[in-house]
Amino acid sequence: MAEITLKNSEEVKVLKVNIGAESYNVPLSGSLTIREARAMREGTEDGFGFFGKYIPMDVLETLTMDEFTALNLAWKEASSEKTDVSMGES
User: In the structure, how many helices (H) and strands (E) does the chain have?
Assistant: First the structure.
């Protein structure tokens, strides 16, 4: 008989984001819940909303667009290294 056990690990894989003197942990795509992943894929949540859950919005809004683009790329690259889950294009 085949068997699988889920929710066995509490480990959340994250990207550590340093902004100024502070550090924030953003979960990688493989650690997102199905609900979070679907919201991103379906476009009901954009990158600002997603990152705003883990980085205070008043800090996030101080980034330049170049810095925000670099954050997005770093998250996508780190996510692709840690999992086979693809979030698609955003």
Answer: 4, 2
